[in-house]
Amino acid sequence: MTAPQTFNIVVLPGDGVGPEVIAAAQGVLNTVGDFYGHRFTFEEHLIGGAAIDATGDPLPPETTAACLASHGVLLGAVGGPKWDGGPRRPEEGLLGIRKAMGLFANLRPLQVSPVLAHRSPLKKEIVEGVDLIVFRELTGGVYFGEKTRTADRATDLCEYTVGEIERVTRAAFRTALNRRGKVTSVDKANVMETSRLWREVVTRIHAEEFPQVQLEHALVDSMAMHLIRRPRDYDVILTENMFGDILSDEISVLGGSIGLLPSASLGSSGPGLFEPIHGSAPDIAGQDLANPVGAILSAALMLRHGLGLEDEASSIEAAVAAVLAAGAVTADLGGALGTRAAGAAIIDAIRAIHWAAAHRVQMHWG
Ligand SMILES: NC(=O)c1ccc[n+]([C@@H]2O[C@H](COP(=O)([O-])OP(=O)(O)OC[C@H]3O[C@@H](n4cnc5c(N)ncnc54)[C@H](O)[C@@H]3O)[C@@H](O)[C@H]2O)c1
Ligand SMILES: CC(C)[C@H](C(=O)O)[C@@H](O)C(=O)O
Ligand SMILES: [Mg+2]
């Protein structure tokens, strides 16, 4: 257990369901802090549509400065129809903060327990036991290439440098060494020049630095199919920015809901940014319907990858697993709980797990 510390966390609730799920994650962090003696101070800043409304800028300079000076950043979501067609887009704020913080590796893990397999729209025997992690390159590719627009023509440049590919590739291989030792690199090398460079670099880094890891290459179109047909075959999935965005939403279906998936965005130094993979969900925003688990598990990833608090992170994950097993879930998973009640159930589970540990009692859930 780590000695008690104080951590300055920047929270960027953003838009739509963002503030709802971030409130739940803050409640969980406060509870974990109480048990382990840590203090989390939360400094709230504007991003996305909320920032456009208040300042005209989706990423005000104060937000960037606060994030860079923090121990970690917890983000809800940005975007929504309110800002469609406007002069500034909320998503610019998200892309801007990722770039400004140098967050080139976006980790999106998914484990499908028997309980989640039961709730998945896919067959239980296909998804039960899935344990994979997507390494999505986050600050390059078509997202950040030059864009042009005339009345009858638009372009988005897709660009990657060797250095950009190397750093995320190394991060993925290092993670594979501590898992099942397999990396699947996903590209579109039959069509795209950036993908051919991607494949060459990944192949070289593998041969020179990580020959003990099993490497396979896959084309993104058939990979989208394999992920639904035989997802248990995959361990670490390494891919570029846009393919990773699309495949990770697809993968979320294996576990039953996009509301479950967390992510960690990391650079080579400095604080990380932690956010659920889902968006602002305008269709359910403001109704206490959003699943807070993705945001709460993102807080756990912040404790593990950002603050070095492994026991504390594991205690959140154990509580989430217990609550899912007990069926205390939101409507997206077929349950009756609202966002606040689902967050409160996870807080209760953390308390129960600590009480049981203190009294050496075995807990039985479900
Ligand atoms: N990281 C981010 O901030 C982020 C990510 C994705 C999309 N967006 C933005 O969000 C807006 C809406 O995008 P979208 O509708 O394509 O994707 P979305 O992820 O917001 O929603 C897709 C579907 O999943 C559901 N959903 C999402 N999160 C949920 C949760 N926590 N619990 C239960 N159900 C949930 C929604 O209700 C919706 O039906 C867009 O403006 C988009 O740019 C932001
Ligand atoms: C909102 C959008 C810019 C963002 C992305 O494409 O990276 C989102 O879809 C995500 O997955 O975080
Ligand atoms: Mg996305």
TrEMBL record:
Named in its record, the pathway it takes part in is: Amino-acid biosynthesis; L-leucine biosynthesis; L-leucine from 3-methyl-2-oxobutanoate: step 3/4
Which positions in this protein are listed as binding substrate?
Answer: 98, 108, 136, 221
- Enzyme's top EC category: oxidoreductase
Q: Does the keyword Magnesium apply?
A: yes
- Listed GO MF terms: 3-isopropylmalate dehydrogenase activity
Cofactor: binding details: Binds 1 Mg(2+) or Mn(2+) ion per subunit.
All copies of domain Isopropylmalate dehydrogenase-like, residue ranges: 8-346
Pfam families, per the entry: Iso_dh
Q: What SMART domains does the annotation carry? A: Iso_dh
Known EC number(s)?
1.1.1.85
Q: Which residues bind NAD(+)?
A: 279-291
Q: Which keywords, in A-to-Z order, does the entry hold?
A: Amino-acid biosynthesis, Branched-chain amino acid biosynthesis, Cytoplasm, Leucine biosynthesis, Magnesium, Manganese, Metal-binding, NAD, Oxidoreductase
Q: Which residues form the signal peptide?
A: none
The record's annotation in InterPro entries points to: IsoCit/isopropylmalate_DH_CS (IPR019818), IsoPropMal-DH-like_dom (IPR024084), Isopropylmalate_DH (IPR004429)
Q: According to its UniProt record, where is this protein mainly located?
A: cytoplasm
Q: Which residues bind Mg(2+)?
A: 221, 245, 249
The protein's assembly and partners = Homodimer.
HAMAP family in the cross-refs = LeuB_type1
Regarding protein family, the annotation reads:
Belongs to the isocitrate and isopropylmalate dehydrogenases family. LeuB type 1 subfamily.
Summary of the function given for this chain in its UniProt record = Catalyzes the oxidation of 3-carboxy-2-hydroxy-4-methylpentanoate (3-isopropylmalate) to 3-carboxy-4-methyl-2-oxopentanoate. The product decarboxylates to 4-methyl-2 oxopentanoate.
What is the protein name for this chain?
3-isopropylmalate dehydrogenase
UniProt source species? Brevundimonas balnearis
Per the record, the gene is leuB
